[in-house]
Design a protein that fits this description.
mainly beta; Thrombin, subunit H; 6-stranded antiparallel β-barrel; 4 helices; 8% helix
Length: 268
């Protein structure tokens, strides 16, 4: 997740230790502050992206959300290094505790990665897609209709494996979630795209390690709608989210999804 230290810079909330130095002007996040643990079997649409270290071990990298049985959405600042071959990642679907077995693990030879080509920290472009070769069995979250941006005052949820204390770099192994109020976003004199979603408070918010994780609302029968993805924070917003209901953010992905028979994924 990213944080703006002045009107032109931002810090991301990604989980990898090296990401902050490489993406000095991009989002990076941690775990959910003020949240509660998620029980096993809950939130099957919340995806964990892990990165492989030089010694072959895997660790938390970013969050993501399953939006179709073959499509995972995350932040572009999480996907771009994998797309460029600078990070080796895998996705884990349906596993709440990263120390436990289970879930569906999909390795890099079974998916393709696509990042928004116009990604910029001040515009609503922080979107990357991981397109799986084969469907997974977990139930995906729905996407909102085009233009269905949650209004200020609405209560929504966020989930992630990021830090629970901004003063402590330790991250939990179990998924956590919190209820956040949508806030009116001050774009700092027009520096930031108005399409972003701002949600959270000083005490209940996203943190480093939460990047790419979903901002969602639960509906009846356990169904969920994913409105946004954790991108970072600014001087005037403790939780900045890519707005998935913005039709413009999906334009670069039309062809790649349509070519795989997945054109229906894009909000209409």
């Amino acid at each position: 997740m990213r944080r703006s230290t002045n009107r032109l810079t931002a810090v991301s909330l990604a989980g990898a230790g090296t990401l902050g130095s490489v993406l000095a002007l991009a989002p990076s996040a941690s775990a959910v502050v003020g949240g509660t643990p998620v029980a096993d079997g809950q939130r099957p649409f919340v995806v964990q992206i892990e990165r492989r270290a030089e010694d072959g071990t895997w660790s938390h990298y970013c969050g993501a959300v399953l939006i179709d049985s073959r499509v995972v959405a995350t932040a572009a600042h999480c996907s771009k290094f994998a797309e460029q071959g600078r990070e080796t990642i895998r996705v884990v679907v349906g596993r709440t505790d990263s120390r436990a077995p289970g879930g569906t693990v999909v390795t890099a030879d079974r998916f393709s990665v696509h990042s928004h080509p116009g990604f910029d920290t001040t515009t609503n472009t922080d979107l990357g897609l991981i397109v799986l070769d084969s469907p997974v069995s977990q139930t995906p979250a729905a996407l909102p209709a085009a233009g269905e941006k949650p209004r200020p005052g609405r209560l929504v949820r966020v989930a992630g494996w990021g830090r629970t204390d901004l003063a402590d770099e330790t991250k939990p192994t179990r998924l956590r979630e919190a209820v956040l109020p949508v806030q009116r976003f001050d774009t700092e004199g027009g520096i930031w795209d108005k399409e972003f979603i701002c949600a959270g408070t000083a005490g209940t918010r996203v943190a480093p390690g939460d990047s790419g994780g979903p901002l969602f609302e639960t509906k009846g029968h356990g169904k969920a709608v994913a409105y946004g993805l954790v991108t970072g924070e600014t001087n005037t917003c403790t939780g900045l989210f890519t707005n998935l209901a913005d039709p413009a953010v999906w334009k670069p992905f039309h062809d790649v999804l349509a070519s795989r028979g997945l054109g229906h994924v894009i909000p209409k």
